[in-house]
Amino acid sequence: MKNILLLLFCTMFLQSCSQTQKSNPMENQASKSNPYYSRTNKNKLEVSNEKWKKILPNDLYFVAREADTERPFTGKYNDFDEIGEYYCAVCGNHLFRSSSKFASSCGWPSFYEADKNGVIYRRDSSHGMERTEVLCKRCESHLGHVFTDGPAPTGNRFCMNSVCLDFERDK
Prior knowledge:
By secondary structure, the protein is of the alpha+beta class. The chain contains three helices and nine strands. It has one domain: Beta Complex (Metal Binding Protein, Guanine Nucleotide Exchange Factor, Chain A), CATH 2.170.150.20. The chain is about 20% helix and about 25% strand.
């Protein structure tokens, strides 16, 4: 009987020791090791891509700093409808309110309106197309593109890469 109790105790002890704390899947883990990440500082950042490459995870670096694109229908915010705020995953700058998000079925999270103080625009003639690139106003990271086939009231469709977004639920 003692052996059975001892075995049971050891099994329970080992199980409790092996359990790990699960993090919020929507929480940007990269922001914890990024000295430039702030949701309150609005000062423009002048950081070289060489420095960003050392700080950011590879997937975020290549999309945000090299204007790559994540595969459609793979981003964590594509099929996501929580209520809250979207921030730049690189620097923490405010970009979108969830109330402007809509289901566009294009494969990337889409919004009809951006924070006018959060984004800037640049002409993009890459890949044989004429598009309007959307960048974070604070760190100038590539977020995605804006198209004029969105819903009312703006008619815009901000087609964003999930990896470039950080989300905080309303409390």
